[in-house]
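Final report, section 2: Outcomes. Of the targets proposed, Nuclear pore complex protein Nup133-like is the one most frequently requested by collaborating groups, and we therefore present its record in full.
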Amino acid sequence: MKKQENEFPRESSPSFFGESSNCSSLSGSLNKTALHNSRHSFSGRSSQSIPGIRSGYNVVKCFGFPLPVVVNEALTSVGSAAGTVSAKVAQNGLAWVVHGRRLLIWQYKESSKDAKNPTREGGFPQCRELQLPYSDLGYNSELISVFQTDGQQMASCIAVSATGDVRYWPSIAHDGNTVNLPILTGQDFVQIINLPLQEGYLAVTSTCTLVFLSVGLTNGRYSLHHKTIKPATSLLGGFGSDKDPLLVGMCCERNSPESETVVTVLSDRSIQRWSLPSKGNTEHLLHENEEVVLRIREEFKKMFWNLGTPADNVEIELHLLDFHIVDDKAYILAGAVNAAHAPQMCYAVAVASVQANSILLESFTPLKLNKFYNAKTKEDCFSLRFIIGSSHIYLYTPKVVYPLLLANAVPTAEIEAEKIEFHLHDDRILCAAVCSRLPLFFSRTHGLVSITPGDFDANELHNMSTCNTPDLFKPAMLGSFSAPDQSELTAVTGSRNNLHMFELDPDELYSDRRDKVGQLKAAFVYHLKRNNSMVKTIIGELLRTVNEPDQCSAPLDAYKLDRIVITIAEDLAEDLPIADPCWEEALGDHDGNRHALGSSRSMQIINQLRDKTLAFDHFVSFLHASGVWEKLNAIPCGSNVLKPTSFILSDISEKIVAAIALRSLQAKQPKIIEHAIDATVAMWDEKPNGNLTTQDIFYVKLCKFQFVFKALAEMADNQISAQGDTTVMVAQFLNDTNSIVLDTLGQVFKHREQQANHFTPLNDRLVACENLPWTAMSGSAGVRDTLNRLIDLSLRYGSQCISETELSQKLYQQIYELVDLVLEGRKSYLDSVRGSEKANLLQRQFEVQRRELISVLIKDLKYEYAAKLAEKYLDFHGLVLICDVTNDKERLDDYMRKYEEFDFSQFAIRWYLRQKRHGEVFERFKDNPVALAQFMRDHPSLIWIQLIFNGDYEQAAKVLD
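The predicted structure is given below as tokens.
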């Protein structure tokens, strides 16, 4: 482990009584057939009980007693020390959290050895708080041990700082009763384990130096003693070489019949096994093995990059990430990077058998997992860890758990696994452990969480005649442990639990709803059930009836099918969450939700929104597959605008994405966003009833989502008008507001680009229709007016009013991005109306606003931002002005070459003449005689200026005569 590069807390194997914490019985290694007990667990779906953690095929439950209030406060702290929170779970029923210099200790389960799978109880356990001594490098939960010996009523604790300051508490009930000892100043301590047989503790540094700590009791007073353990001097290489090794991990293997404890230390170069006697000072090194690490390196080369011969002189960057020993087998998680091939880290699990005098590599299993690797992502690449249960190995990062099946057979292929995500924004896994054969994960949001495999037998899959989950068991889906495709599997399986539409009975829907909207909904549900015959029948009948006049002799509605599709899409986006108790009263008054397609069973708003996205994607796919899409038209939208229905559907989809983005930002800017949501709901004249909040209402009324941007701009205006804040405070508020708007719309534009093909009209006539997305609309239907307002406020009351350089620079960057959004929207709309009557008027409007917005940046000396915009949107006036005020003739020449097809040189010459700077024309353009000659041909009355510039005064006089 390289502590400087990876601060993610490591879960070590040893318990606090010298035994392996992974005490489960297992043999053999990993198996590719991870399907049998974990991949297909239908029972696991119904057992999912924790908001924000999705699993399709494993049982996820809260475990143990509730977290003490003080621990919850520490975990949710947003102070300066919030990022340094670490946690540890011990087999003895105790857990602790380190928060700055605070050490919080509590009992998370019954201490009796006969306790069976404790569940959450109502009462909160007592928490003990200890004060850690001051340390420059702080503390980590791995450097703390809390234990309770036989006959001891209260647990004891020992803590070591990274810099080697040791503190011992004989009883955690008395914070003031401590013994302190500094050891090995200048070292970087990483881990400590308890050695009950030796009545002491073993600490290890990042360079694999071992220090034995013991506690003495003389005349009722405790004292601390330490001893550095050194390898035999005859050993060459290994840990004794000139270049210090870097620690990966330390494991306490077992206690021998001779009352000796065997400890194994893994570094980036070798494995050492030490024997520590229960009495005396005769600890000795059993053996050291460098071959295993070398073999792992060679296996990476061969398995991932097919490098196996001496001629393949390619060096890879190897990182050993985690290490556990269970039942005489060493499990090593490793990652490697072949920079010559690609900047990505590949992962594998190596299994070695631990014998009396040797360690032999038994298997090497590549994982179908890789991550992009560079200086910025290095910490994330190194964050992968694992624990070993009785039937599975659980790989995990701070946000994801991958359960992999263990079996006797040595694997011969890559591993596949489900991906269990801890979705909530602030949630992350602080540590993991196996206690009483149960895998436990310490979640920052939920506390202790257990993950166990479900009981579905994969063999039953072959006996199933139908499966209502679309494409769930397709091989392409199952093989996606790596890369982005895995998120699709998680989304499908997770939302299969939550989406009400998968539970709808299409026959009941078809008979209950005889209106055309109900019929199209029924066809959609039949499509989900893969009853293509009924889909074809209903769609055929629907297309026939929408093209017939109404019985009451009303004129034929050419847009009837479009209105039906849009109605379903809007309903889907705004369907109420069916299982959220907050909406119980509203659901009782809303019979239509019985057949709601976008209704989610999740009680978390973010998951409800994600479920709507998935439901909407299924609906669009159905429209394509059923042939309805090609029948869609363009409908009137506002005055003199025909907008293709496909573009309207795109707008609805984007508003759901925008809602997800805003909800994800809410933890960063809770005050501003919550106030904006309150103001938005007030604009709608909506009031929450019962248990509902304004946020519940806001995140359901998604078709009017754009109003939140108006609310944000009005909040900024009110902040300025109040005059109660300083200039810097106002500028900071504008910066925060702009950040929310830009981040939210950034996700919208990303989604629009990715999904462009899904919302393209198939009718060539519709492709030529106007395309004015909601982000470019003015008025209450769009956000363009809000963007213009934020640009104005940010300039007048932000960037131009403060002297703080960093904040001013942030604001100008945001102004640049806001201007880009405004101009991009207007230009896209202008491109869609080329050749129409309104094109000339819109072109003039675009040019006027383009010049106004870019000129402001030039006036404020932000030439690079202005130049980027002027180049992108062909504002030649701005480009010439920038070159002139910066006296950059070289840049002007570059523009003349770059925009030659647009006659940029002629525009530049005319610009100088309009400025009445005739004499400069020939000086500026003397190196471009072609452009100058062309201009003179077009303006012969000005030839006298060139003659004077050339010194031909006589001829100039004749021209002037």
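Residues 908 and 914 are 10 Å apart (CA to CA).
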